[in-house]
Amino acid sequence: MTDPELERWRLVLGAPASELGPLSSGAAGRDAALDWLYGRDGELERRDVRRPGRSGGDGPSLLTTVDWLDEITRLFPRETVERLQRDAVERYEIHDIVTDPAVLERVEPNPALLKAVLQTKHLMNPDVLRLARRIVKAVVRDLMAKMATEVRVAFTGSRNRRPSRWKLARDFDVTRTLRANLGHYRPDERRLYIETPHFYSRTRKHVDQWQVILLVDQSGSMVDSVIHSAVTAACLWGLPGVRTHLVAFDTDVVDLTSEVDDPVELLMKVQLGGGTDIGRAMRYAAGLVERPRRTIVALITDFYEGGSVGSLIRTTRELCEQGTIVLGLAALDEQANPSYDRDTAQRLVDVGASVGAMTPGELAAFVAEHVTR
């Protein structure tokens, strides 16, 4: 098979399309690596996808997980490797990717592996946990670098109409720049050439002391929210005018505020799974409130209450009536894809809470808007 397009289709369709012809040596390696993972898909049999039979012989031995990781790293670009690793741990639950020391030494840290570590760390012995911590530390470092910038932007002040000599992309003044450079428009090319860009300046705001209480549902389905809440809390920690609390809950409540400055250690202590008692967590948060009109309670959950919904509604009403801002966040990951109990969420809205979905950057901006004047 020499036609590159035909070869690509052969790789997409997998072993059932082997009659299209033989693959080149490089493509054959990629095909074997893909088949090792996706060949175990139970949907193939349900859809009556017939794969060539295999028989014993003196052919190459079956790939181990370590061999497979080495192969995909050699054969595919980094983005594809991350996708394959994510499918391995999330779709096919190949947990030895994050529980086998020999495998952990080879994997390149990425968010999918961080989630897998948090979901399987209870299966790890101390030696494996030390290796897994490398993944947690690397991914958290990357998230911190990105999210800390978003938080700093939110707290640096509001833009005003005065020009600035500091040329920052986030302060780019599009309208003024277009007007000032209209003379450089070339009709034949239908392009406007920018000779002099213009930027806004920012004004610093007065900062009052506020409490921000993050209540995070640590049930298994909320792993993305747990990760990003931990990093968001770390980014808010130490900012002027903000005192941050981080509380994780299932049927129990665990105050993790003392660990907020070290999100790696914090995430290694989180226990995912179990039931959900949102009302109990809200009552705990109410006990932390010192100045109701200077407090934001951000409840991060899917709103599927395992405890008393009535108790949750009563506590929320009391917080709102005393002037506390209550946010119900249905998701707190970078995509902010909400999946939640809309009936319970609506009942919280009816007593004064606000419910929606925010990315970590949007939450930081919301906090900054209320904390700064």
Number of separate domains: 3
Q: What's the CATH H-level homologous superfamily of the largest domain?
A: von Willebrand factor, type A domain
Q: How many DSSP helices?
A: 16
Portion in beta strands: 5-15%
What is the arithmetic mean of pLDDT? 78
What is the CATH topology descriptor of the largest domain? Rossmann fold
Q: What is the first-to-last residue Cα distance?
A: 68 Å
Largest sheet: 6 strands, mixed
CATH class identity of the largest domain: Alpha Beta
Number of strands: 10
CATH architecture of the largest domain: 3-Layer(aba) Sandwich
Structural category is alpha/beta
Portion of residues within helices: 40-55%
| Residue windows where pLDDT falls under 50 for at least 5 positions | 52-61
Strand order of the largest sheet: 7-6-5-8-9-10
What is the assembly state of the chains in this entry? Answer: single chain
Silhouette? globular
Task: Provide a short characterization of the protein structure.
The chain has 373 residues and is an alpha/beta fold. The chain is built from 16 helices and ten strands. The longest helix has 30 residues, at 126-155.
